[in-house]
Amino acid sequence: MIKERLIAFGDIHGCYEAAKKAIKIAEDIGGLAIFLGDYIDRGPLSIKTLQLLIEAKQNFPHWIFLRGNHDQMLLDLIEKRSTTNDLGCVLGMNFRYEQTKKTYQEFKALDYFNQAEIRKFLNDTNFYFEVDTFIFLHAVLRNTKDVLSKKSSEELMFNYSYEPEWKGKRFIHGHFLVKEPKFTHNGININTECGYGGVLTGALLDETQSSVYKYFHISENGKLIS
């Protein structure tokens, strides 16, 4: 028996139709929807996807929207901390802001109201969300010296490593690509290549068993596959 209906969705990466279907599934199920970040880039309609999620947040203010590394990159560009020519470095890993260039150009073409709305949405996203039996975040949770509440936002958005292994409650994440949902070191990765020709995965969770009750797989064009 499901204690509370929680459904988490992996990285959307600009796939508007997949996001639209995910919202409909979450609405039909009821309860609490958690979106794990990386709403933009890769797919064809990043800004339109953000606007769709903004509307969903207005309709369901209790839903949780987390921040992914791509969302942070766009925010860095919007707030002039970086340019599209910059090379970023986080946790010893280099990345190029150029991969967010198309989304940023689309953002700059918007009017002031729509720009302000997107900027506010991105700034309001959380770095993690926690319930009794699960932790939700974009990147991989690892057992460093810092407790969850003291971990850096960079680690929660950018980390790829499972070592040292997290010993706490089970966590649900995205960030790096897997063909199908994958359980590793007390984490469940549901970033199943949406925006790369894969699918968007939703995980309906059973809080009483700290497990996945059911997966939903949505094609990039918004069809429920399973």
Task: Offer a quick outline of the entry.
This protein has 226 residues and is an alpha/beta fold.
In the sheet with the most strands, the strands line up as: 3-2-1-11-12
Query: How is the CATH topology of the domain at 13-164 named?
Result: Purple Acid Phosphatase, chain A, domain 2
Q: How confident is the prediction overall: mean pLDDT?
A: 96
Distance between the termini: 21 Å
CATH architectural label of the domain at 13-164? 4-Layer Sandwich
The total count of strands amounts to 12
Shape: globular
CATH superfamily of the domain at 13-164: Metallo-dependent phosphatases
| Class by alpha and beta content | alpha/beta
Low-confidence blocks of residues: none
State the helix count.
6
Largest sheet, in brief, is: 5 strands, mixed
Give the helix level as a range of percent. Answer: 25-40%
Q: Beta-strand level of the residues, as a percent range?
A: 15-25%
CATH C-level label of the domain at 13-164: Alpha Beta
SSE pattern, N- to C-terminal:
EHEHEHEEHHEEHEEEEE
Gyration radius over CA? 16 Å
